[in-house]
From TrEMBL:
EC number in record: 3.4.21.88
Pfam families: LexA_DNA_bind, Peptidase_S24
Self-association state and partner proteins as the record states: Homodimer.
DNA-binding region: 28-48
Protein name: LexA repressor
GO MF annotation list: serine-type endopeptidase activity
């Protein structure tokens, strides 16, 4: 599965709702009216992109849009920004789009994606550019992969609670752990429960 833009996700959501309500797919004109545009060419570009990404197929008929099986059971989650898999850096909160995954893969409320920047977790199979699926939770167990805020800056690391401090351990032998003392403000944003990667 490939990430969708916000506009593509809006088109997909409308097609899904329309098909569930009426038992047949909308026309290009129906979609254009929903988007508030007059030209069908923009709608067709979105449909071509969704077909290329595997979310639907077009048969050529007026109401010939067919959702693929995973498209009908998907749930869109926001890509809310970037998190550094390296040294502490300010978190960038800016919705970059949406990425749809199968509903069965989402455990818990309020899940979201962050785009990974950096190589400190390559030993855990988390690479620069990956999308990390984060489940919000305020606590973590030792060795959980978490997104954590320290004095307002964010990072993605393995979590270890030690006497009088917290160790944020990278999965890269060339990088040092980050130690958080009792005088620092630390909060767990959530646990990383999935990693998604586009291969080409």
């Amino acid at each position: 599965m490939i990430a969708l833009t916000e506009r593509q996700q809006k088109v997909l959501d409308f097609i899904t709702r329309f098909t569930q309500m009426h038992g047949y797919s909308p026309t290009v004109r129906d979609i254009a009216a929903h988007l508030g545009v007059s030209s069908p060419s923009g709608v067709n570009r979105h449909l071509e992109a969704l077909e290329k990404k595997g979310w639907l197929k077009k048969t050529g008929a007026s109401r010939g849009i067919v959702l693929t099986s995973h498209g009908g059971q998907s749930i869109p989650l926001p890509i809310v920004g970037t998190v550094r898999a390296g040294q502490l850096q300010p978190a960038i909160e800016d919705i970059q789009g949406f990425f749809s995954v199968d509903q069965g893969q989402v455990k818990g409320e309020g899940c979201f994606f962050l785009r990974v920047k950096g190589n400190s977790m390559i030993g855990a199979g988390i690479f620069d550019g990956d999308l990390a699926l984060v489940r919000p939770q305020p606590v973590a167990e030792n060795r959980d992969t978490v997104v954590v805020m320290v004095d307002g800056d964010a990072t993605l690391k393995w979590f270890h609670r030690e006497p009088n401090r917290i160790r944020l351990q990278p999965a890269n032998p060339n990088m040092e752990p980050i130690y958080v003392g009792p005088d620092q403000n630390v909060s767990i944003v959530g646990k990383v429960v999935g990693i998604y990667r586009q291969l080409e």
